[in-house]
Amino acid sequence: MALIEIENLSVTFHTSGRHVRAVENVSLKVEAQQSFGLVGESGSGKSTILRAICGMAPITGGQIRIDGKPLPTPRGPNFAKQVQMVFQDPYASLHPRHTIDRVLSEPLAIHGQTGSDAKIEQALIDVGLPPAFRFRYPHQLSGGQRQRVAIARALMLRPQILLLDEPTSALDASVQAETLNLLSRLRTERGLTFLMVSHDLAVIDHMCDRILVMQHGRAVEELSREALATAAMTTPYARALFTASADRMLEG
After folding, report:
1. Which of 45, 66, 83, 172 is an S-S bond match for 217, by CB 3.0 to 4.6 Å?
2. Which secondary-structure segment (H or E) carries 116?
3. Contacts for 252 with CB less than 8 Å, ≥ 6 apart
4. Minimal CA–CA distance to 34: which of 225, 178, 201?
C-alpha cells in the first residue's frame, strides 16, 4: 500500500464570482521512502496539490489518504507529526522577530515534547549548522542557511513525509546544489518520503524516483527517472518541457 494516495483530486477556488479550477481529477501514489516529483509551468496546479494535502486549499473532489487513512478536516496534531512542508521562500517562512531557537522549539512546545535544548542543537547539527546559530535571527543568516533552518523545523517532530514546494528555487545555484544534497542525505538517513514540486526538470531528475508532469491543473504524463533521463516522453507537452529545461541548462 502506498504511503500517499491521491485519487481524482480536484481543487476549485471561488473568487470574485469566478470559479478557478486549479486541479482537476489528478491521481498519484507515492510509496514509502520514495521521492516523487511534480513538475510543470507556473499555474499548472502542482503547488496546489501540496496545499490541499496540508488543508490549505479547498478539496472539491476526490480523496487524499496518508498510510491508507483519509485525511481529517481540520488536519489536527497527528497530521503534523506525520507530514511537514518546506516552502519556497526561506525568509518569508521564518518569523523575522523570532530567534532560530524559538523557531525550532515551537513545534516541540505545541506538541508537549520535552528536552528541547538537546533536540534543537542536534537538529542544527543534522542540517549542517553550528549550535551557536540558535540565538541568531533570520536576517543574520544567508538564504541557504535560512532554508536549512526551515528544513530543521520541518523535521523537529520526526515526520515520515516532507512536502517540498520549490525548496531551492530562491537560492543561488551553488547553494541550491548543497541544499538538494542535504535533503537527499536526510531522506536516506531518516527513511523519509518526499513529494516535491519544481518547475526545473534538472532538480526533479536529481531528486526523484518518479515524476508527474502537470499542465493547466491536469496530469499529463507520469515518468520514471529512467524515462526522464533518456527523454522517453510520450506526450508533446512533456517533451516540450524537457527541451526547454535542457536549453536553459545549456544557456547557463
Report:
1. 45
2. helix 116-126
3. 173
4. 225
Whether the CA torsion 240, 245, 249, 252 is positive or negative: it is: positive
What grid cell was written down for 73?
A: 478536516
Could you tell me the sign of the dihedral formed by the alpha carbons of 234, 239, 240, 242, in that order?
Answer: positive
CB atoms within 10 A of CB 78: 12
117, 116, 142, 113: which is closest to 128 by C-alpha?
A: 142
Contact 26, 8 (CB under 8 A): yes
Beta bridge partners of 196: 37, 164
Question: Structural domain tally of the chain?
Answer: 1
Q: What is the pLDDT of residue 25?
A: 98
- For residue 92, the model assigns a pLDDT of 87
Q: How far apart are CA 207 and CA 225, in angstroms?
A: 9
What are the pLDDT digits (tens) for 132-156?
999 999 999 999 999 999 999 999 9
Amino acid at 123: A
Task: Name residues of the chain where pLDDT drops below 70.
Answer: 247-252
DSSP 137-157: -GGGS-HHHHHHHHHHHHHTT
> What CATH number has the domain bearing residue 230?
3.40.50.300
Q: Are 211 and 222 in contact (CB under 8 A)?
A: yes
Total number of residues shown for the chain: 252
CA distance to 129, 135, 230, per residue, from 120 (Å):
11, 11, 43
Could you tell me the residue range of the domain that residue 47 belongs to? 4-251
Rounded Cα distance, 192 and 35, in Å: 8
Check residue 238 and give its pLDDT: 92
